[in-house]
Specification:
Strand order of the largest sheet: 1-3-2
Helix content: 40-55%
Distance between the termini: 52 Å
Strand content: 5-15%
Shape: globular
Largest sheet: 3 strands, antiparallel
Radius of gyration: 19 Å
Number of helices: 9
Amino acid sequence: MVLVRVYGNKTDLLINRKDETRNIRILNRAGFTHSLYATFNNGLAYEFIQGTTLTTESVRNPDVYTLIAKKMAQMHKLKPSHIDIPKEAFIWDKVEQFMEIMPKEFSNETKQTRFEKLIKPFTVLKQNYQNLKRTLTDLNSDIVFAHNDLLLGNVLYNQKENIVTFIDFEYTAYNYQAFDIANHFAEFAGIDNPDYALYPEEELQKTWLNIYLQEYNNVNYVPENEINLLYTQVNKFVLLAHFFWGCWGLIQSEHSNIDFDFLEYAATRFNEYFKRKEAFPDMNV
């Protein structure tokens, strides 16, 4: 079976399609995902992979999250040899690109009224971004080949074969290890009506991180201090994940033809960012 995906309206503002197809080929050769059969101006055709996407329940299943933690660690250990892949963290340039093109106002009066009610002024967002960049860079998280968009719909679980497969590599690039993990944890909230109260609790996170670090470091035991360090990094980087997708939601609210309230989604992500950063005095501005 062959799947054909057609790109959404103006998604070229968000995604480098040349990089996406390169990433699929790299990861297919490494045995991580489907084959790519063809590309065309506004889409691509690729191999169908058996499996079901995750739910807010299945992502908490130890049998499933053990596979995900190991698979992410394996991906993070990849060292693609392509010389055209920048080896520094992509996230800062990407957020700055998003902030440059995201709407500062809307021509539609109704949408503009909602925008002013739901989203803090751009000057406030910019100040918070600058603080994020300064404080998170100082955490010295490893830079790895990361998925960067591991939401529930981008993980296929094949129960019969007991494997997971990652899909959709639109944002795959070198990035901070802690960001990729944090972004996945934030997606425990679900897709259509995200509930961020479902963000994994400390015990679950540390169990997950222990599995991940054993695979990442190729060891059978991880000292508690290493788990705690990554746990702290992840729970600071989750702020950047919410900020990043908040910017993305604003861009989609301007351009997407999908019947979805992207403005509300952006507000939810920014609200979660401002709520969570209160737990870290050094992150406040």
